[in-house]
Amino acid sequence: MSARLRAAAAALLSITLTTPAVAGSEAEAATLEAPAVPLFVEEAATGVDHTYDGSWQFFTGGGVAVFDCDGDDLLDLYLAGGTEPAGLYRNTSRLGGPLAFEQLESEVTDLELVTGAYPLDIDSDGLLDLAVLRRAENVLLRGLGECAFERANEAWAFDGEDDWSTAFSAKWEPGDAFPTLAVGDYLEIGEGGTFPGCDESALFRPVGADGYGQPEALMPSHCTLSMLFSDWDRSGRRDLRVSNDRQYYDPQLGEEQLWKVRPGEPAAPYTREEGWQRLNVFGMSIAGQDVTGDGYPEYYLSSMADNKLRTLTDGPGQPTYGDSAYRRGVNASRPFHGDDHRPSTAWHAEWDDVNNDGRFDLYVAKGNVEKMPDHADDDPSNLFIGQPDESWAEGAIEAGIVHSDKTRGAALADLNNDGLLDLVEVNRAVPVRVWRNAGAGTATQPAPMGAWLDVELSQTGPNNDAIGAWIEVRAGDVEAIREVTVGGGHVSGGLGPVHFGLGEAREAEVRVTWPDGEVGEWISVAADQRVHLERGSARPVALAMATDMTGAVGLVREDAEGPVLPPVPSVDPATCVPTADADRSMARLWDEALLDAIRRDFPAPTVHARNLYHTSAAMWDAWATFDAQADGVFYTDKTAADDIDAARDEAISYAAYRVLSHRYRDSAGGPESLREFDQLMADLCYPWEVTTIEGNEPAALGNRIAATVIEATMDDGSLEAQGYTTRDYVAVNEPMIVQEPGTFMNDPNRWQPLALEISYTQNGQLLPIGPQEFIGPHWGEVTSFALPEPPKSGMPIDPGDPPYLHDEATDAEFKEKAIEVATYSSLLDPSDGVTVDISPATWGNAPLGTNDRAGYEFNPWTNLPYEPVEVPRADFGRVLAEFWADGPDSETPPGHWNTLANSVVDHPEFERRMAGSGPELDPLEWDVKMYLALNGAVHDAAIAAWGAKGHYDYVRPISMIRWMGGLGQSSDPELPSYHPDGLPLIEGQVELITEETTAPGERHEHLDDHVGEIAIWAWSGNPGDTESELGGVGWIRAVEWVPYQMSTFVTPAFAGYVSGHSTFSRAAAEVLAAITGSEYFPGGLGSWTVPAGSLEFESGPSQDIELQWATYYDAADQAGLSRLYGGIHVEADDLRGRVMGAQCGKDAWTLAQTYWDGTARAS
Asked: DSSP string spanning 449-481?
């Protein structure tokens, strides 16, 4: 990589991955770049309005529990209130979007005198419970689902006592149905509010399957403020580390403790003879994490003025610890900011990776106890960023979290599932602060930083969340291990996916050591996702996240709707009145819902084509199961029903609902899509919560069909479980820095990724900072609907070689077709006054694989000539480029052709006669058959096109033009700037910049600093104001040429040959022509009007532009040609894609008929 590119890439990526280093020389450390610090943005309108307050008995405490109480994969909050009621807040954040919560008020949870809480599944019923600590009776709350709870002290025989509890931890012993609980108490309050001494902490051990026996006192106790069961020596035993506030009234008596807690034995503290050394601090919090890479956890102990980082000094044989806090930069004994230099007071501490660089960072909450004169009042919390030399550096100022509140409890957690850890701070006597991690972005435009992985575990039986397990992750130079624990911190705990930063790695391996010591296999997973690992299964299950394609922050379609709406209430079919559109078939309703989900999601046409096909197949199978003749695609059983029409509708709905909910729960816009699916079920009066697959009731049947489809397609080559991503592809060319002129290419025939300062998808989603990654190079391996066996691995249809530079037979064509793309962009000048007829009279009727349009003499439906439609040529070209880019509402080409197909059916002259003859079908039968054939075809088109893309890895026009233009001209060796690989000179299109052409008043005057370079007459790029200004057409340097696209998009992130648009469109056109029995649109004319002023790339069009097509083939040809106007493809990409699409469509149509007539299985 060149020095220039290396510097630019560093600026774009904002991070540098470095192996966690053993401390070396100062010279070695100096060569390592400082890690990036994420920006945290305090979000005021989160819906969290909560304060922890109270008298001196609430100077300690103030915790937060972070957990998913309603099963929606978003982490909810339970906040201690002191003398104010505690608060339960349901997370309603949009995936990847602003943080938002709603308070759920309940007498059960709104307890007063709460100091903190910890989540865990005490009864192992799959629903998280809460252990609530109080300055009163402690309470165990049993989770009931949907964030509802009930008091369980009596049911579980738990003696909550009446103490001042400030610490908690839990572990499971082998064979126990319930966990062993440790509760730490602070001061024993006497009559009149006096305190004679530290209160006794206690163990609660389970007795059989009924709950708990009498508490077992842990004596001596020294005013406990934090507890943590942890396997400190990796022996499989989890001992109890206890952090104490000295002895409070007599500091000489107190010390930190490590208790042996073994089954059937009284708890006993480790002694001096066993290696435990006395440590006397004002212990406030424990945070355990292996940060040295030796396999054993270090423990950070927060205190007043003297925080500790404890590391085993003599190996695992005995619990002897030394301290390295000062040497490693985390002593944090005094404020790092402001003018108050008195000692600090530290509370909650937590390890995690806030910048995803693969090194653990450390958050430490700070704040004066109240008004202690010997300690700092202005005492901001720390955010220590892990450094390459295994030290830490303060990052709170750069992160933006500096304030002077008295912070107590806190939590680092990904609250919007974007892969970045957000921050919740509980402050004494002032409102809770909620900070969104904006990563490498800004307050208004967050951006990712570093790859990441979140891992959630489960196992059967007691301890189903696998408390006590160890999770190992290795990814490139990153190796990390984390223990799954309940406890520690300062009355604050969380239970959810365990977070790992991966740096620049794009895939990782995960291994679990389960609580009983069984070591699992290494499992490979893609980066940038949340996965669930179930014990005994080698297949990870993806959880909801901001996007399943790139890890992009899901800033999708900013609007005023705010957070996701409340859940859709269930319905009672006996009393419900359907409100769904009764004029549309059940299949049509679900197709429309799917199109809406596509519009919200990342524009990945391969993935959406697959989802369209599998949803269509599920709906077809639900229809076919009630037909004695028809064959199902995935589900082949037959079912009887008294009311077949009603049964079909219900089965289709459940089948579609389950497939779509499964596929789009992890997508950008997932919550909105899932809610739309729920709402459609409610509008149809179908209870969406019915999940049974047993029996032949329509709901169970639909669920069973969906389960069959999901199971059958999980291993179809798409890598769905890995987020549809593969890391096997490596680009042969260095990325092009688009903002800089020119480019360098190792091979000018091969695809080159682009690197943009800011990059968005065409439907407005912010992409990760850094070079593009090839999306879907493996897609040629995906299981198809009707494609033939591939002649070459991963390429079902071979379109033949594209034109290559340096190939004697095609070198001239390569150059000519590159210039042709630039010439198309020169036609986008609204000031040229040129008009063209875009009616079918002149536009259309081209033989397959050509642009030899003959037009049509007359409309066969009316027997009248087509009326001319004269429009400005520039308006037409710009509308083509934008309209076909991703469809009228960004539903990508596969979805766009569903939209067109639906509009065909809606035409008043259309009749639902199969292949144009026979009896008219009812709307449902027509739709399920049309969607199966149509979406089977576009699914196959995606496989065929991406198979060619992956195989040929062909260059895009921007690289061709910039590369050749930067070399010079190839027309005349006698002229300056000659290079055999340069651009051919064409007067008025491609010219050499000379002293003469740059003279005052000459055409290249504005390029007078670039004499000897190549100029192109082409579109000049996006204007500053795309709503009111034009980029225009003029002479530009060839090395600065850009396609007619947004400057934040430029070109898709995959190879050019062949065009997906061309392949999708022709495949769909073939199906529509076959199923309707005519290649013509109903009435002999299809159209779509693009309103004046609606363009996105620049101002325009100057008038309404009505695109017209006589036939489906004409529309498909126009879709392919639009990519030349848009500068995305050369002609070979388009024309050969059309030919491939024709085969996909015809084969899909032929196969679909065999499912309809019941001969598919026979063949």
From this structure: -SEEEEEEEE-SSSSTT-TT-EEEEEETTEEEE
What is the distance of C-alpha 363 from the center of its chain?
Answer: 25
| Model confidence pLDDT, tens digit, residues 559-594 | 333 333 457 888 999 999 999 999 999 999 999 999
* Token output for 1045: 């696209």
User: Checking DSSP bridges between strand 361-366 and strand 346-352, what pairing results, if any?
Assistant: antiparallel
Residue 564: what pLDDT?
35
Write out pLDDT tens, residues 54-95.
998 999 999 999 999 999 999 999 999 999 999 999 999 988
Distance of alpha carbon 97 from alpha carbon 414, whole angstroms: 11
**pTM, full prediction:** 0.59
Residues 6 or more apart in contact with residue 634 via CB below 8 angstroms: 617, 618, 621, 705, 708, 709, 712, 713
Report how many helices (DSSP H) and strands (DSSP E) the chain contains, helices first: 17, 49
Q: What gap in Å lies between CA 1089 and CA 1071, rounded to an integer?
A: 24
Please say if the pLDDT value at position 4 is more than 70.
no
Tokens of 648: 């079909």
Residue type, 104: L
Angle, vertex CA 231, rays to CA 259 and CA 313, nearest 5: 85
What is the structure's pLDDT at 247? 62
Question: With bands split at pLDDT 50, 70 and 90, how would you rate the model's confidence at 252?
Answer: low
Sheet with 422-427: list strands edge to edge.
Answer: 39-42, 433-439, 422-427, 407-413
Report the amino acid identity of residue 315.
Answer: G
DSSP string of 344-411, one letter each residue: PBEEEEEEE-SS-SSS-EEEEEE--SSS-TTS-SS-PPEEEEE-TTS-EEE-HHHHT----S-EEEEE
The two structure tokens encoding residue 426: 């509980």
Which letter does DSSP use for residue 193 in this model? G
Helix (H, G, I), strand (E, B) or coil at 932: helix
Of 448, 546, 1054, 1076, nearest to 770 by C-alpha is 448
In terms of phi and psi (left: phi > 0; alpha: psi -120 to 50; beta: otherwise), the region of 296 is beta
Q: Measure the CA–CA gap between 878 and 1093, rounded to whole angstroms.
A: 12
Over the stretch 1050-1087, which tens digit does the pLDDT of each residue have? Answer: 899 999 999 999 999 999 999 999 999 999 999 999 99
**Could you report the per-residue pLDDT of 291-334, keeping only the tens digit for each?**
999 999 999 999 998 899 999 998 888 999 999 999 999 999 99
DSSP letter, residue 91: E
Three-class SS of residue 986? strand
Q: What share of the chain is helix, strand, coil (3-state, %, to 5)?
A: 25, 20, 55
